[in-house]
Specification:
Layout lengths: L5 H15 L4 H23 L6 E2 H8 E14 L3 E4 L18 H12 L7 E6 L2 E6 L1 H9 L4 E11 L12 H14 L1 H4 L13 H14 L10 H23 L10 H16 L8 H6 L1 H11 L1
Parallel strand pairs: 1-3, 3-5, 4-6
Antiparallel strand pairs: 2-6, 4-5
Helix pairs in contact: 2-4, 3-6, 4-5, 8-9, 9-10, 10-12
């Protein structure tokens, strides 16, 4: 139609208003979603974290290993979609819209759903068991608000160095990222698969890394170059870490403080020994450490 009839234009305006206007079902849904965000923001503030999606960038830098694998099109549980590649601050943890600038696009997606229009699959990255939206934030948001269980998605998967689960607590992210960074630097997850080196305090990974670096430098013959990192990490584990952890396990002291890890204890013992002797312990000195485990090394740790 080259010359549109004014009455036709008015009819189109009325239809658009019915679908997207201030009193449309989509508009009311958006308003309801925005009210929920306010409640979620308050609850997050009181619990000590920010109410927005997980940021794919720093998490993937710390945790991702290898190249993405294309998993194709599949149905993905909506509750497992916890993050975003580049819009993590625009939606809250329940994938509700956080500002008015999202209204127009959000309402159009909601109206399209209401009228049964087809929608293309969203695009997701999978890291561990958590999904991050690359494209399709509004479609995920609308689907979650309507109570859908799954959504069709094109998925690219990245292997995670540290287990990552959809029900993770935002407060655990510093620990997860710190351990991921430690593994990324040392490649311990590749060199020592199935060995858990986690610490209970993320700031101590730098100290553990210094211990391995010091072992790498000292554990060599005079005039020799330091071992390559993979060989040094494996030798550190076999000659120092594993014997001390076996000593800790045999002593039963872990039962006295269940919130600590064996690597916490290893780090305390070797740090305390170094403070007393200006060096790391040698394998032939481990029996002496075991004999004095409680009174010499652990009393300050457990009482602290």
């Amino acid at each position: 139609m080259s010359d549109l009839d004014p009455e036709f234009l008015q009819q189109q305006d009325r239809q658009m208003a019915a679908q997207f206007g201030e009193d449309s079902p989509a508009a009311r849904q958006f308003d309801r979603a925005r009210r929920r965000v306010v409640v979620h923001d308050i609850m997050a503030f009181l619990r000590g974290y920010r109410n927005h999606l997980l940021d794919f960038g720093p998490l993937s830098e710390s945790l991702a290993s290898g190249e993405p694998v294309d998993l194709g099109i599949q149905d993905v549980p909506l509750k497992a979609i916890r993050g975003s590649v580049d819009r993590y601050q625009e939606f809250d943890m329940a994938f509700l819209p956080k500002h008015e600038g999202l209204r127009d696009r959000w309402q159009r997606v909601a109206a399209a759903r209401r009228y049964g229009l087809p929608m293309r699959p969203v695009e997701l990255y999978k890291l561990g068991d958590v999904y991050f939206v690359k494209d399709g934030h509004h479609r995920v948001s609308v689907a979650r608000l309507h109570g859908d269980e799954t959504i069709q998605a094109h998925v690219l998967e990245l292997t995670s160095r540290v287990p990552l689960h959809p029900d993770l607590n935002p407060k655990d992210l510093p620990d997860i990222q710190a351990y991921g960074d430690f593994l990324r630097v040392t490649k311990a997850d590749e060199i020592l698969p199935h060995v858990d080196l986690r610490l209970s305090e993320p700031q101590y990974y730098a100290r553990l890394l210094r211990h391995i670096a010091l072992f790498r430098y000292l554990n060599r013959e005079p005039g020799e170059e330091p071992r390559e990192w993979p060989e040094a990490v494996r030798a550190w584990y076999e000659q120092l870490y594993r014997p001390i952890c076996e000593m800790i396990r045999a002593s039963g002291v872990m039962k006295r403080f269940p919130k600590r890890t064996r690597t916490d204890l290893y780090l305390w013992i070797t740090t305390h020994f170094r403070q007393l002797n200006n060096r790391l312990p040698r394998p032939d000195e481990l029996d002496e450490i075991a004999d004095h485990l409680d009174d010499t090394y652990l009393a300050p740790f457990w009482n602290g």
